[in-house]
Amino acid sequence: MMKIGIYGGTFNPPHTGHIQAARQAIQILKLDKLLLIPDRIAPHKDLPSGSPNPEQRLEMLRIGTQADPQIEVSDIELKRAGISYTYLTVESLHEQYPNAKLILLMGTDMFLSFLNWREPQRIMELATIGVFYRGEKGEKEKILAQRAVLEARGAKVELVENEILPISSTQLRRLLAFGCAGEFLPAGVGGYIEKNALYDTGADWKQLPMEQLEPIVIRLLNPNRVAHVLGCRDTAVKLARRWGADETDAARAGILHDITKALDGPLQLTLCREYGTILDEFGCKYPKTLHALTGSLVAERIFGENEAVVSAICYHTTGKADMSLLEKIIYVADYMEPCRSFPGVEKLRELAFSDIDGALKLGLELTLEHLKNLGDEVSPASRQALEFINQHS
Ligand code: FE
Ligand code: FE
Asked: pLDDT digit string (tens) for 260-289?
């Protein structure tokens, strides 16, 4: 009997994690064919510029799977009118391949919420369920429990162990904006994206006026970080006014300071690699702290910022010896902007407008204290920053 895998998703854009999962499923489940089925993205009035249309998502998948003769790309969901439910897809594939064994592939989250889908019983009648999982202990227990529940209802479930790459389409779109998605793009897909200027790959974002810069930054941030970043920008402008620094530089450094923060540790390292940056020991050990460095690189290369702005972003988490006024302002604004709340923040807010060096010193001391409590190392730059202040005050 022919075995056909069904693997749906948005594929916006397809990445190497998708291809790897598809190959893994073919091998483990001994599939004769695997259908990749891009789903419809609900038409949304403000889709970001450079978003691909459905044909382009199909085409990217076709290009990315050229080397895999068992993988076929299907437009079955893109062609269907009305809401696209999985059970409808399974029904029409069953009609098309009445004698085949269909295996519907899905990730853990989808599997655990499977009974909330439309017509789960119908899907279980017509297809086996194939679950991708990472082999982590907690995850496996949940999956086995859910498998028992579904099997009691007559489902057939197969597990596909799959080492999941640290990438998602959302993160890949960020890497594309920063010009360093290369290692996660299937062969040929990067070229197609560039040729069609998808995901803003053809855009020039250098020295944009603030009203154009702001929506781009918001799109690249995690939604839960937007208020902090805008708060930091506005606070930095106020501090610049108070202390006589350049207000435009303060605004730009403020809004860009966490521009790469949505990338996790491994992707911070990807960005450093792609930009050819040599890392110090501390950065390698604590890749999450790298967002200050990578943010400064993006500010320079993608947004065309000047040296003062780039440097203020670079030292916003650690500080350093002998900081410029703008560097101090961004460091302090990041620490005490209106979204921040921790014991001592009021004192810091007061000092920021009465004694900027005192505020910087307090911020550094609070950081050291915090890291000590966490049992984490303090970066050499923070130590040097504090030593410098203590020697010069
Ligand atoms: Fe930060
Ligand atoms: Fe921040």
From this structure: 999 999 999 999 999 999 888 888 888 888
| C-alpha dist (Å) from residue 8 to 18, 130, 218, 315, 338 | 10, 12, 29, 43, 43
Task: State the pLDDT at residue 46.
Answer: 66
CA of 337 to the centre of ligand 1 (A): 12
**What DSSP line would sit under 79-109, residue for residue?**
H--S---HHHHHHHHHHHSTTSEEEEEE-HH
Query: Ligand 2: distance of its center to the CA of 236 in Å?
Result: 12
Contact 334, 312 (CB under 8 A): no
Ligand nearest to the CA of 335: 2
Closest ligand by atom to 332 CA: 2
Over its C-alpha atoms, the chain yields an Rg (Å, rounded) of 25
- The string of DSSP codes covering 366-393 is HHHHHHHHHTPPPPHHHHHHHHHHHHH-
Per-residue pLDDT tens digits for 68-91: 999 999 999 999 887 789 999 999
Rounded (10°) CA dihedral 137, 141, 143, 148: 160
Higher pLDDT, 49 or 128: 128
Is 0.70 topped by the overall pTM?
yes
pLDDT reported for residue 45: 56
CA of 15 to the centre of ligand 1 (A): 28
How many angstroms separate the alpha carbon of residue 304 from the centre of ligand 1? 20
Q: What is the Cβ-side half-sphere exposure of residue 170, based on CA atoms within 13 angstroms?
A: 8
State in Å: Cα 301 to ligand 1 middle: 19
The ligand whose atoms approach the alpha carbon of 293 most closely is 1
Residue 368 has pLDDT above 80, yes or no: yes
From 255, 341, 326, 329, select the one nearest 295 (Cα to Cα).
255
